[in-house]
Design a protein that fits this description.
- This protein has one domain: Creatine Amidinohydrolase (Alpha-Beta Complex), CATH 3.90.230.
- It is globular, with a radius of gyration of 17 Å.
- Helix 1 packs across helix 2 and helix 3 packs antiparallel against helix 4.
- The protein has four helices and 15 strands.
- The strands form five sheets. Strands 1, 2, 4 and 5 form a four-stranded antiparallel β-sheet that branches. A three-stranded antiparallel β-sheet has the order 3-12-11, with no helix packed on it.
- It has about 260 residues and is of the alpha+beta class.
- A hairpin with a 6-residue loop joins strand 11 and strand 12.
- It binds 2-amino-4-trifluoromethylsulfanyl-butyric acid (MF3) and cobalt (II) ion (2 copies).
- One cobalt (II) ion binds next to loops.
Length: about 260
């Protein structure tokens, strides 16, 4: 069955814009706290309070049993890392913080990478290429196009660099629901199940996970944390986007202009 999504009207799109902006503001807000010696539970608590103070709810908290308000994924953690007092950021780490808020009934979902201290050249390049992969995918989006163009463009960009593209975790439709159709795969494919013709008002995320080594990954015993099989590092960025008349609108653009690291504050 091909995927379907009812396009959002202008009232709904405005609510998506507000939710997306707040999610991006959470990442802007947390940026100066992300440094060596800080633990990820502290980052979680700061984000949680910021979200509540802005009249919103952190969507991950209790979502299918997830215990915290944001996801913090360090180094070889691909996604869904659980914030913990025991996870203390150290020199050379790369960290993804993934924020999803619910504001006025609508979700905004975005993540960025952070570099801790002196990160190796190859890991800096992984992070930069992952940001560019997300943008290459987003830039295929237009009314009348197919959502499968996203994965094709990402693979064309990433494959020559020798990285692995994670296949098990995908972008997703988003709105009143956190995860819905369409499923947005980040690799090249033309299976009819993953095809959807884009229309103005469609909203979804683009969130490629790119591995330094092979694409394989495994779920840890906590049933959330996903690690690379080869324990090489993995990076991810995520935007929530809306299809417009002429192209695409990024709903989670950083108001502070903090697109990818280093974030020179
Ligand atoms: N924010 C993640 C995404 O991009 C989902 C996290 S689900 C959670 O889709 F339960 F782990 F929070
Ligand atoms: Co997310
Ligand atoms: Co998402």
């Amino acid at each position: 069955m091909a995927m379907k999504q009812k396009p959002k009207n202008n009232v709904e799109l405005n609510k998506m814009r507000a939710a997306g902006r707040l999610a991006a503001e959470v990442l802007d807000f947390i940026t100066p706290y992300v440094k060596e010696g800080e633990n990820t539970l502290k980052l979680n608590d700061l984000c949680h309070d910021f979200i509540i103070q802005h009249g919103a709810t952190p969507a991950p908290l209790n979502y299918r049993g997830f215990p915290k308000s944001i996801c913090t994924s360090i180094n070889d953690v691909v996604c869904h890392g659980i914030p913990s007092k025991d996870d203390v950021l150290k020199d050379g780490d790369i960290l993804n913080i993934d924020v999803t808020v619910i504001l006025d009934g609508f979700h905004g979902d975005t993540s960025r990478m952070f570099l801790i201290g002196n990160v190796s050249k190859e890991h800096q390049q992984l992070v930069q290429n992952t940001y560019e992969a997300m943008m290459v995918g987003i830039n295929t989006v237009k009314s009348g196009g197919d959502i499968q163009n996203i994965g094709c463009a990402i693979e064309e960009f990433i494959k020559p660099k020798g990285y692995g593209i994670v296949e098990e975790y995908c972008g997703h439709g988003i709105g009143k629901t956190f995860h819905s159709d369409p499923m947005v795969v980040h690799y090249a494919n033309n299976h009819p199940n993953y095809s959807m013709k884009l229309r103005k008002g469609h909203t979804f995320t683009v969130e490629p996970m790119i591995n330094m080594g092979t694409a394989g990954n495994e779920l840890m015993d906590d049933e959330w944390t996903v690690r690379t099989l080869d324990r090489k590092f993995s990076a991810q960025f995520e935007h929530t986007v809306a299809v417009t008349e002429n192209g695409v609108e990024i709903l989670t653009e950083s108001p502070a202009g903090l697109h990818y690291p280093p974030y020179n504050l």
